[in-house]
TrEMBL record:
PANTHER family: CYSTATHIONINE GAMMA-LYASE (PTHR11808:SF15), TRANS-SULFURATION ENZYME FAMILY MEMBER (PTHR11808). GO terms for biological process: cysteine biosynthetic process via cystathionine; methionine biosynthetic process; transsulfuration. It comes from Bifidobacterium longum subsp. infantis (strain ATCC 15697 / DSM 20088 / JCM 1222 / NCTC 11817 / S12). InterPro entries: Cys/Met-Metab_PyrdxlP-dep_enz, Cys_met_metab_PP, PyrdxlP-dep_Trfase, PyrdxlP-dep_Trfase_major, PyrdxlP-dep_Trfase_small. PROSITE patterns: CYS_MET_METAB_PP. The lineage of its organism: Bacteria, Bacillati, Actinomycetota, Actinomycetes, Bifidobacteriales. This is Cystathionine gamma-synthase. The keyword Transferase applies.
Length: 243
């Protein structure tokens, strides 16, 4: 079974321990994409998963300057299978990419805690805005998130740096909003120290339009960086005021 928690871009939460319990009853392995939480906040192997995968492009690299991935396992048989595939398919990072990831790991814990603290402030501020501007905020740290209790149990020390928000004014309002931020850069990817903003339906998730994976057209995904939280909120405020 493949689990992505929190998920991109709607921040859905899956109970890792409960999933592993059911899967193992039927002899099925569980792989968890832990990219959004990072190893600083969530430990799927300790919760019963068999495999953890990361896009190290995101929080592990942390500076938007490396593209990479990692597979983490805790049994020799799976490690050998992954190593065989890696050797056969050539999925091997360069020495410089590895160096950038290792350098990122040294500050991962500090960065992710700041990302999480800033994201909670941003999410709470967005949620306090009038309902004719903000329709819905998606962040696992908010009590309004349908799986907040599961997230609070399986994430430790924060809920991550990604906040998604649906604008009452629809797709047009979403596009105007992301066009007018000054600190948040309009760009794909996430998890770097600088704040980014994007419209998934038109950008990162455009290829799933018309499928069951389609995301709402009025959704904006925000990768909250490690800048001053008050500056970030002031930037979002002036951009919302200009819609
Ligand atoms: C949860 C998650 N996993 C994997 C990936 C893939 O990352 P990469 O671009 O490094 O292949 C992404 C990219 O956005 C992601 O958000």
């Amino acid at each position: 079974m493949w689990v992505e928690t929190p998920s991109n871009p709607l921040l859905n939460i899956t109970d890792i321990a409960a999933t592993a319990e059911v899967a193992h009853k039927y002899g099925t392995k569980v792989a968890v994409d832990n990219t959004f939480a990072s190893p600083a906040l969530q430990h799927p192997l300790a919760d019963g998963a068999d495999v953890v995968v990361y896009s190290t492009t995101k929080y592990i690299g942390g500076h938007s300057d490396v593209v990479g991935g990692a597979v983490v396992v805790n049994d020799e048989e799976t490690r050998e299978k992954v190593a065989f595939l890696q050797n056969a398919a050539g999925a091997v990072p360069s020495p410089f990419d590895s160096w950038l990831d290792i350098r990122g790991l040294k500050t991962l814990d500090l960065r992710v805690k700041r990302h999480s603290a800033n994201a909670l402030k941003v999410a709470e501020w967005l949620e306090s805005q009038p309902s004719d501007v903000i329709e819905r905020v998606w962040y696992p740290g908010l009590e309004s998130h349908p799986a907040h209790e599961i997230a609070a149990r399986q994430m430790h020390g924060g809920f991550g740096g990604i906040v998604s928000v649906q604008l009452a004014g629809g797709a047009e309002a979403a596009k105007h909003f992301v066009d007018h931020t000054q600190i948040f850069t309009l760009a794909e990817s996430l998890g770097g120290v600088e704040s980014l903003i994007e419209v998934p339906a038109a950008m990162t998730h455009a290829s799933v339009a018309g499928t069951t994976l389609q995301v709402p057209a009025n959704l904006v995904r925000i990768s909250v960086g490690i800048e001053n939280a008050d500056d970030l909120i002031a930037d979002l405020k002036q951009a919302l005021d200009r819609i």
